[in-house]
Design brief:
By secondary structure, the chain is of the alpha/beta class. The protein is 39% helix and 22% strand.
């Protein structure tokens, strides 16, 4: 194995970033319902993302940053990434969430790079618009192919780890497909299924050398 790609929300981080942001505006139930439907594959990811971000319009950017810098990480996330990197594996984070969270967590959890989305703001206030690298349900798969080509890494040398429907697009391009505390739609396509919220379990399921 030479490349490990992890989803962020509900995989490396314990929860959904956008749900934490929604709490600040007291719209968490409305946003969480859309999130859940999207992760089960019942809603188009792009539509669900743009709809939810629009609901965040008016939230101050400093509050976004504060929330994103105090998110709870999943048990074993840092330890697992550390062990993978010790084995010479590149560890990357793909997230349909936001740079405010993934770039901050990179320095804490230790992954090599993050690809995610950007909440647009004007005068330090969210406009309700979003753009970035992970906007569509196929974005993670496309980015994985680009990384593999750039790094000279094969499908056989790749592991992907996720929990929701928008992680499905990565699965055809990795021989090691991990469904972590995942929705049924992802578990059906995985060859490793982990039901306990502890990422170190992955280390017992794979061959590092």
């Amino acid at each position: 194995m030479k490349l490990a790609v992890f989803d962020f929300d509900s995989t490396l981080m314990d929860g959904e970033t956008i749900d934490f942001l929604a709490e600040e505006l007291d719209i968490q139930q409305e946003v969480a319902l859309i999130t859940e439907q999207a992760m089960q594959g019942k809603l188009d990811f792009f539509e669900s993302l743009t709809t939810r971000v629009n609901l965040l319009k008016g939230l101050e950017k400093y509050k976004v940053d504060k929330i994103c810098q105090n998110l709870p990480y999943v048990d074993g996330a840092k330890e697992t990434i550390t062990e993978l990197k010790k084995a010479g594996i590149k560890v990357i984070c793909f997230s349909g969430g936001f740079k405010n969270a993934t770039s901050f967590a990179k320095n804490i959890l230790g992954y090599d790079a993050d690809f995610s989305n950007i909440l647009h703001s004007k005068n330090e206030i969210l406009t309700g618009q979003v753009g970035g690298e992970m906007m569509f349900n196929y974005s993670k798969g496309e980015m994985l192919i680009k990384l593999q080509n750039m790094l000279g890494i094969t499908k056989a040398e790749t592991m992907v780890v996720g929990d929701g429907a928008n992680d499905l697009s990565m699965f055809p391009y990795a021989d090691t497909k991990v469904a972590f505390c995942a929705k049924q739609i992802l578990k059906e396509k995985a060859n490793i299924v982990i039901e306990k919220k502890d990422l170190t379990i992955i280390l017992n399921k794979i061959q590092l050398t």
